[in-house]
Each structure stands twice: as structure tokens, then as C-alpha cells.
Amino acid sequence: MSNNADSETRDLLILGGGLVGMALALSAARQGISSHVIDRADPAELTKEGFDDRATAISTASWHMFTNIGIADYLEPFACDIASIAVTDQNKPGRLDFTPEPHEGTLGRMFPNRRLRLALFEAAAKEPLINWVPKAEIVERERSEFGVAAVLDDGRKLKGRLMIAAEGRQSPTRDEAGITIAKWDYKHRAIIAGLTHSKPHGNVAWEIFYPAGPFALLPMKDDADGTHRSSLVWTVSEADGKGVTKLGDRAFIAEIEKRMKGVLGDVTSVGARSSYPLGFHHTAKITDERLALIGDAGHGIHPIAGQGLNLGLRDVGALVQVLVEGARLGLDPGDPENLKRYETWRGLDSFMVALATDGLTRIFGVPTGAASAVRRLGMAAVQRTPMLKTFFMDEARGVSGDLPELLKA
Hints:
Layout: H1 4-7, E1 9-15, H2 19-29, E2 35-38, H3 43-47, E3 55-58, H4 60-68, H5 72-75, E4 80-81, E5 84-89, E6 96-98, E7 109-112, H6 113-125, E8 130-133, E9 138-144, E10 147-152, E11 157-165, H7 172-176, E12 181-197, E13 204-210, E14 213-220, E15 228-237, H8 238-246, H9 249-260, E16 267-270, E17 274-283, E18 287-288, E19 291-293, E20 299-300, H10 308-328, H11 336-364, H12 369-384, H13 386-397
Parallel strand pairs: 1-2, 1-11, 2-8, 5-13, 11-19
Antiparallel strand pairs: 3-7, 4-7, 5-6, 9-10, 10-11, 12-15, 12-16, 12-17, 13-14, 14-15, 17-20, 18-19
Helix pairs in contact: 2-6, 2-10, 10-11
């Protein structure tokens, strides 16, 4: 089935309609930039109850973007503020607290991924400048100095002026373009699950470091009946990953309670568990002829700092700004000048964030007694140094560096 929108040549041809791809389509549309969004997934599957227990920390800067593109009001009721972050080494004395001053606002807010998807999908469905093509397989990608196109398996051909790779870590568009990728595997997995627990979390996010890796508890909004909820991100070695994933609920709860040491009281239930291999990857460049990479297609970082989506949204903000400013000068969206500006702006910032989170992982992932002492020494130093604490909090809020307009209040 073809419609008129399919046959139009649009400004952007966005391959991948996940959170980052859809945020780009919406942000661009609000500036009068049209797009085709092609995604293989079925949106009904992605938004059904219980499909995904994952939750994401949305930084202050990302929240400004949601406000600016008009989805904040929908999301507001599902937000859980992160008022402070407590960092400890195996819950031993000497914890590090990041608590902003009252006038500085929160360190971010937690949202269920399902709600983020619904907010973006519903806004995109109403936007005439977005032609959303779900459940579609791409069989051919074309790029030339004149434009770009994607051929679908049902024979449809969608055309644009700039191709965007937004398919995540395993981006086929990036690989086909021959963009090389530097990556290393941490030989660890993140196990993610929703928890209900007896004590309120008090809007504190916990990052508890163990020799095998960090164990994070992120505050979620209480259920309507007052049940307390949090999201668990537990890093285990690749060797232990399968065993932990296979544990029955009761045994799994016993293992996590042992590591929580009562900070949230008793764990009363655990939701569906998912696990992901951890790795770091960074591409040599994020642009090519009429092609821009956004989100995990260009850089995948360790989820220890929960910054993956926020980093992708910074790509979105920068790219949209570059395109809007380019259009004022009469430049075509795929003009090399636009791409060069985007490359320069985002290349360094995303690499610095990736490096910082990788550094954290290496400091916190060393499994020796000495590492534990070094960690506590380091945490004590940060605790006493307001400038360092402010730096970490600004990073968490996503407000450091050269920020795109869309991510400002």
C-alpha cells in the first residue's frame, strides 16, 4: 500500500524509529523539516503493557528538549525525580552523595521506556511532516550527490535529501557506508528488572560498587496503590550472566537483597528480567556523503551512567540546529557544510562522554581489595571537593559543554 507521502522527496530519510530516531523526526518537524521514518518494528508490540521493564534517566537538558517539542505535558505524570545520587563501595562507610542545591533542581528524572515511546509515537502520528513507515524491511540504500533513497521489501522507494542512521548499535547503514568502529567488550552483562520494595526510595538513586561491577537502583514513581518501585541495573560478569538470568524469582530476590543491604527494605516482587552485553564503541566519524549517524549508531557507551539516550538526544539537538541554520543560508539538508558542522560539534563531545564513562567503568570495575580502597579514597576526595561534585552533577544533568538550543530551557 503506497500513499502520496511515500512518493514525496522529504528533507530527511531516517532509518530507525526508536527513541532517538523519533525524537529527531519530531524535533525537525517542529522546525518545518520533513522526514520519512522507516522502522522494522511494530509500534503496537513496542508499547504493549509488560513488553519492557526498562526505564531511562532523562537529564535536565533532555527534559528541556521534550518541553520544546511538546511532549513534556504527556510525560509529566509518569516522572520520578532523582533528587540525589548515593555512591557507595559495597555499602561500606564513606559514601558519596550528589545532592544539588534546591535552586538547581533535580539530577534528572526516571521514566518507563514504554511511556517515552508512547509520547513520541503519539506526537509523531499527528505530525503531517513525518511520514512514519513501521514494520518495514529495507533491502537497498542509495546515496549520491543528488539525494538519498531506501527501497523496501514490498518495492516502495522512499526518497530524501539526507540519510540518518538511527538503528542503534548494530547499524547496517553505518556498516554499509564502511564507517569503521573502535570497540571493546567489557565481558560483562547488565541485568535489568523492575522491583517493588517495602521502603520508599526517597528519590535517591543508588550506585553500589562491587568487585564484579556496579549495582544500581533507580527510583521509579510509586504505583497508584502506593507500592514502591525502583529499576535495577545489575552488572555481572559474562560468565555469571547466564546463571543469574536463569534464577527463579525467589533466588534472584535473595541475591539482590544480599547486595542491597536493606537500603529499600524487603524486595516484594521482581518484574521481567532482561540482560544486555556491555561494550563501548565509537566510530571514526559520524558523517559521510549525505549521511549522518545519531545515537548508538555512532557511539555506544557503558550504561553505568545511564547517559546513552541523553547523548543521542544531544546529537538530535545539534543536528536540527545545524540544519535550521544551514537552511537560512539556503543550504540543502545534505550539504557537506552542514555535515562538517555536525561532525565537529558532536564528534568530540560524545567521545569525551564515552571516555569519561569508560574511565568510571575501569576505576570501578577492578576486582581487587586495593581497588576497593582506591575507590573509597577517590569518593572521599570527590565528596570534599565541591568543584568536582558540580562537574559530575552538570554531566548527569547534561548541561555541560556546547549545548544545542533545543536542550536549553
